[in-house]
Amino acid sequence: MYPAQATQQMTPPVESFPIPPDFFHDFLSQTHLSELSSSTPTSKHLLPAALRTAELPVTPKLDASRRGSSSAHRSNPPTAPTTIRPSNSASAATLTPSILRPKCAAAKRLIMWKPSNVKAPLGEVEERVKWVMTNAWADSTLETYGAGLLAYQAFCDKYQIPEAERAPANTDILSSFVATLAGFYAGSTIRNYFFAVRAWHIIHRLPWTLDQDTIDAVLKGSQALTPPSSIRARRSPVTLEALSNIQRTLDLSQGRDAAVWACAVCCYYGIARLGELTVKTIAKFKAKPTQYVRRQNVSLQVDRGGRKVTAIFIPVTKVSKSGEEIYFAQQDGLTDPESALRNHFNINKPSDAEHLFMHTFKKSRVPLSKDIMLKRLKVCAHFVDPTASSFTGHSFRIGGTLEYLLRGVPFEVVKTLGRWSSNAFQIYLRKHAQILAPYIQNHPDYNTFLQIAMPAVRA
Questions:
Q1: SS3 248
Q2: Contact call for residues 251 and 257 (beta carbons, < 8 A)
Q3: Which long-range contacts (CB under 8 A, 24 or more apart) does 345-352 make?
Q4: In a designed cystine with 384, which of 90, 245, 366, 379 is the match (CB 3.0 to 4.6 A)?
Q5: How far apart are CA 422 and CA 200, in angstroms?
Q6: Residue 386 and residue 383: Cα distance in Å, rounded?
Q7: Are residues 85 and 188 in the same domain?
């Protein structure tokens, strides 16, 4: 059916820290930074004089129902500003100009922004070592870390921390940086920003010696102080019933609908991230076509028993720059991914070098973008059931995971299909007791493989 061939992008940033409006000015509290650092007499001298006497914004008042009665004894700080999530904004606090921090794309800041005490100039070999180290992180991670490093430098500018004390940074400065953001940003964002500073130290070969207990506590505290407006709603899974209903509303003889449907079911049964099978923009695909999945990356594989499996090789993924494969087999009913893929190939006829879901739209050949696909599917879902169109791109990965688990596929097999290196996928089990039902009966149905199927219990 398929030829047996299996062989990021960055936006110029605004050189500013996207913080809540007047973050370092209007939300100054009576809490001094010295109170946030260690209470021992020997720790306070580690902070620059300006930072020792600076006042910090307090954390926003949290809903007591979310924190529980134990939070009643805490002070009630002012409400958090409405702007919580990072964004490139003209109103953001700009950095103090410095030759150490030239304007560059966010993903390049880790390597191009220099600590003041790094030996210079570096030789060609040393520069290449730094460049090689940046490849330890995905492009999207480098962009996030670029935002985090921007936040750190803005913090240091505000509190007049000398360049020589910004790196290598000490526990007091970094815990104060985290505490400054706590209550205004999601804990996960703050953690990413903290590890951005760590990555910056690693790349420039600077020591990273911190009081880990203090850092762990302040990061955990920032997670607990995540404002309600920054808590992402749980993403709903796409179900087989919803997919079947959507299929009935699509015109599979039309190019775009054929591509959308094929992508949806391949993503679902392959437990793929939607961004792995689609493009962000047409321009980015044209700039780096080999980093996206193409027609030539689809192959048909057969095991010793004659069972056929379709494999799609994804050249670059979130966790692997050398690529990964997703797999799926023929399914019964309307949602069969192999039938959908064959129909797409017959209608749109993508060449080997074209994007896998290349199609003709308004007489132009275009790859399938994530936004276009989701918009089309949500319109169809809303037409069938107004309450069924709340899914996101990740809903297909969640839905496929749940479907396999509900069929009784062992946990470790699903973990392999989804390409998880950890047990992070277990988060999908929390609202679905029926997945665990066979394992918790008085006489379990799966006694013979309970030990290999169930993931390890966390201590």
A1: helix
A2: yes
A3: 345/295, 347/252, 347/253, 347/254, 347/255, 347/258, 348/255, 348/258, 348/259, 350/294, 350/295, 351/295, 352/3, 352/5, 352/294, 352/295, 352/296
A4: 245
A5: 26
A6: 6
A7: yes
Same domain (yes/no): 177, 62: yes
CB atoms within 10 A of CB 339: 17
> Are the CB atoms for 195 and 216 separated by under 8 Å?
no
Q: What pLDDT, on a 0 to 100 scale, did the predictor assign at position 180?
A: 93
Of 119-133, 188-202, 220-234, the poorest mean pLDDT is in: 119-133
Task: Name the residue range of residue 202's domain.
Answer: 16-230
- Does residue 41 sit in the same domain as residue 155? yes
How much is the mean pLDDT over the chain? 77
**Per-residue pLDDT tens digits for 122-154:** 678 888 888 899 888 888 899 999 999 999 999
Residues 379 and 259 in one domain: yes
Give the single-character DSSP code of 255. Answer: H
Q: What is the pTM of this model?
A: 0.64
3-state secondary structure of 313: strand
Number of domains in the chain: 2
Please report the pLDDT score of residue 125 as a whole number.
Answer: 84
- Interval 306-311 mean pLDDT: 94
The answer to the question of residue 442 being in a domain is no
Residue where a domain terminates, one of 175, 201, 230: 230
3-state percent breakdown (helix, strand, coil) of the chain, nearest 5? 45, 10, 45
pLDDT in tens, 11-53: 333 344 444 434 443 333 333 333 333 333 333 334 444 444 4
Amino acid at residue number 214 = T
